[in-house]
Amino acid sequence: MASGPLIWLLHGPNLNMLGxxxxxxxGAQTLESINxxxxxxxxxxxxxxxxxxxxxxxxxxxxxQLALSQKVQGFVINPAAVTHTSVALRDALAAVALPFVxxxxxxxxxxxxxRSHSYFSDxxxxxxxxxxxxxxxxxxxxxxxxxxxxxxxxx
Length: 155
Ligand code: CA2
Known about the structure:
The structure is a single chain. By secondary structure, the chain is of the alpha/beta class. The chain has five helices and five strands; from the N terminus they run βααβαβαββα. It has one domain (about 5-75, about 90-135, about 140-150): Dehydroquinase, class II (Rossmann fold), CATH 3.40.50. A five-stranded parallel sheet has the order 2-1-3-4-5, covered by helices on one side. The longest helix has 14 residues, at about 30-45.
């Protein structure tokens, strides 16, 4: 059985279309490929990584709440468009009180002004934006090196 701290990689609305549309903004890599690379990296670092994407805000809230019963130690999350709108998702992350790193593929600060505000950044352990898929790698490495608490050995 896989062991090691469990991290959830969460993707918000429309990120399932990565690699299929707007490669000039979001790059050519598909979400599947980002997930595969992220899982390989996590495994190499001795972490367990599970991924989830939804186009529905409520499903993302449900998934975050579920983390408490699944012994999840934190999240890497790209909330996508709901970054700029969702008090519900912010409240869910505050309620579970697990560390999270916010990732954006694009540099949200050099796009439309409404993208510069995030409902998550002031609660995040770290924020990465504008690095494309490399941002996920940075977030996973940051979890590994800086955020994870040692697990109590189970008997
Ligand atoms: O840069 C990012 O990662 C964003 O979180 C992406 C969101 C956007 O609303 C945020 O402002 C910044 C949009 C994700 C949409 O993904 C698509 C992928 C391919 C084609 C169309 C949309």
